[in-house]
Amino acid sequence: MLFAVGGATCNSLTSRSDAVTAEKGTVVYKRIFSYLYPTKLSRTMKRTLLCWLAALGAAAVMPACGDAAGDTTLSGLSRERFRSEADGRRTDLYTLTNAQGMEVCITDFGARIVSIMVPDRTGVLRDVVLGFDNIDDYRTIPSDFGAAIGRYANRIARGRFVLDGDTVRLPVNNYGHCLHGGPDGWQYRVCDAHRPDPQTLALTLHSPDGDAGFPGAVTAKIVYRLTDDNAVDISYEATADRPTVVNMTNHSYFNLSGDPEHPILDHVLTIAADGYTPVDSTFMTLGRIDPVEGTPFDFRLPTAIGARIDADDEQLRNGHGYDHNWVLSTAGDLSRPAARLVSPVTGIALEVFTDEPGVQVYVGNFLDGTVCGKGGVSYARRTAVCLETQHYPDSPNKPQWPSTVLRPGETYRSRCIYKFSVDK
Predict the structure, then answer these.
(1) What are all long-range contacts of 199-202, with beta carbons under 8 Å and residues at least 24 apart?
(2) Mean pLDDT of 30-51
(3) Is 388 a catalytic residue?
């Protein structure tokens, strides 16, 4: 079937006859559309109305995305394509909806956000995150799309640190460093899922002692809650039976235009930060905090991401663009926005609230068009931005920075809220 809603597509034509039927249906509904709406409408409204007409007609003549209609999400995902196995454990897709019609789809594989449908300034629902439309691609194509990252988000220099006098050695997977917990981080693990209510999903992961070289057995819990004011509220908790380090984040790739082929250079970004942590040519922090004033890293006032991204600046060269940690001035206050992102195309705005001291901003510099995501779209360079709330990179080796050490009897807690709205 061919199904489209607000620009998000799901292609699962089961045969050539299905394709012919869909094509004929599209022609019929174009004629109906022209009759019902003879006056000139905007291109966006015309496309949206046509998509809905086509979807209604397709639903009448063939199954939705090869599955029961009730198991197809607003973003065009088929739940059946996420019901499989990974490392001997069953995987699934879970859908959260709120009173405003917003939808968030999450898989228990890596506790990943797969899609987020939010309304734009015209009321059209748009999927604003990158990802895959089936579990096999998540399993076989290395990526961090939408994942809950652990045991340690960001980089640890040379894959080693000293904890209580003992040297811990970790696998290296990024320019000689350990990135996002190594090549087998939590983003590739299946979590235990529990739904306490229709707008909440709780995911639990048990990480054994020595997992990827990290000391101590850890039990981590990630709770996604979709609120009625269009916020995705993410809470993290973890406990350990031995001293270890924990630093968790969400790695959603946002494109608020709703079009994953549209570069995010026009997105307007604001960051509540007076400083950032510069890096070397291997993306490893230098261990100091530099002021953003007078640099391309000053986003204290709303600025387009692409305004200075190609400036002649050593840090931009080292990061291949923006791939840096900003030192937030919000002091862990969840009532103060740490960052704000707006698409001028759709008016969709995203505010980020967190109790973490930092946010890593990555603008998809290494997306190169070789990975095909939802709807068969190739994800090209700088077509998404990640806003990863967390402690600073390499904190286990930087005693001058906030500690990431977790000891028995303590509970690691972190919070990140992605709140969506519309700028008219």
Answers:
(1) 199/96, 199/97, 199/98, 199/225, 199/226, 199/227, 199/228, 200/96, 200/224, 200/225, 200/226, 201/94, 201/96, 201/106
(2) 41
(3) yes
